């Protein structure tokens, strides 16, 4: 169903070759927007784009880019503006997790999480922001995590990266709120995607939280519905967000009570 807020709007989505990103593209197209997809897997992007165009009779554009490469990112974003003239919103969805104790972690894995989850997100936003300011409208949606509010063992670096995203998002919101630009943080619990194939190759954590996992289609629908509205945060599931809030008040108590749950990774 066409949403008047999204009709004809160009929405750039990173990490759009599968999972939440793919469903974001579907819901943008269904609402009458124009998805512009960015990811490394060009084959998957082609499939997603073709299916969307076939299903919704809208244009769906895609661009291959390794967002950890600053030069490549700048080139692709410049190309997008050259091709389309403007972008109305960006959903910074690309991210990665590799669960491990810090002492046992590979440095390249630590570096990848910081590079993709934090540096590339800030780089993309930094390059798009002058355009949003010039056109006096835009929406920046950053996919963070409940892990950025409540850290657990084996996710120290991942939690740190998402905590950085939340901090960046909160400060940016205050900087641009009088320029017609909305800024939203999305803090999710576990989502049923291929995310965990790399985060936890053993499958033990995914198995332990399987009944609690969010569906990416439902998550994407809620995010797309928030576009071009003043929305500080999207937090899901509600019970996990309540736990995160309680953790801020009584962290020691929560760590004791939830020790077994925290160590399921």
UniProtKB/TrEMBL annotation:
SUPFAM superfamilies: NAD(P)-binding Rossmann-fold domains (SSF51735). Keywords: Oxidoreductase. PROSITE patterns: ADH_SHORT (PS00061). Pfam families: adh_short. InterPro entries: NAD(P)-bd_dom_sf (IPR036291), Sc_DH/Rdtase_CS (IPR020904), SDR_fam (IPR002347). GO terms for molecular function: oxidoreductase activity. Coiled coil: none annotated. It comes from the Bacteria. The keyword Oxidoreductase applies. Its EC number is 1.-.-.-. Belongs to the short-chain dehydrogenases/reductases (SDR) family. This is SDR family NAD(P)-dependent oxidoreductase. It comes from Halobacillus seohaensis.
């Amino acid at each position: 169903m066409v949403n008047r807020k999204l009709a004809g709007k160009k929405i750039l989505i990173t990490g759009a070759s599968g999972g939440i990103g793919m469903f974001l593209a579907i819901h943008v197209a269904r609402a009458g927007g124009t998805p512009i997809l960015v990811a490394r897997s060009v084959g998957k992007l082609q499939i997603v784009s073709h299916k969307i165009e076939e299903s919704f009779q809208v244009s769906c554009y895609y661009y291959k880019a390794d967002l950890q490469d600053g030069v490549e990112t700048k080139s692709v974003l410049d190309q997008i503006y050259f091709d389309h003239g403007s972008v109305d919103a960006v959903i910074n969805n690309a991210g990665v997790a590799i669960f491990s104790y810090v002492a046992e972690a590979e440095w390249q894995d630590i570096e990848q999480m910081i590079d993709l989850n934090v540096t590339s997100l800030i780089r993309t936003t930094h390059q798009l922001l002058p355009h949003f300011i010039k056109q006096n409208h835009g929406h920046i949606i950053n996919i963070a995590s409940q892990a950025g509010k409540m850290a657990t063992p084996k996710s120290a670096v991942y939690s740190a990266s998402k905590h950085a995203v939340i901090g960046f998002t909160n400060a940016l919101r205050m900087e641009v709120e009088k320029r017609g630009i909305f800024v939203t943080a999305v803090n999710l619990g576990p989502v049923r995607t291929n995310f965990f194939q790399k985060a936890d190759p053993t499958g033990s954590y995914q198995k332990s939280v399987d009944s609690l996992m969010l569906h990416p289609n439902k998550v994407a629908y809620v995010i797309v519905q928030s576009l071009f509205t003043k929305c500080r945060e999207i937090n899901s599931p509600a019970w996990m967000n309540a736990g995160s809030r309680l953790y801020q008040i009584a962290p020691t108590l929560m760590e004791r009570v939830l020790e077994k749950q925290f160590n399921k990774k």
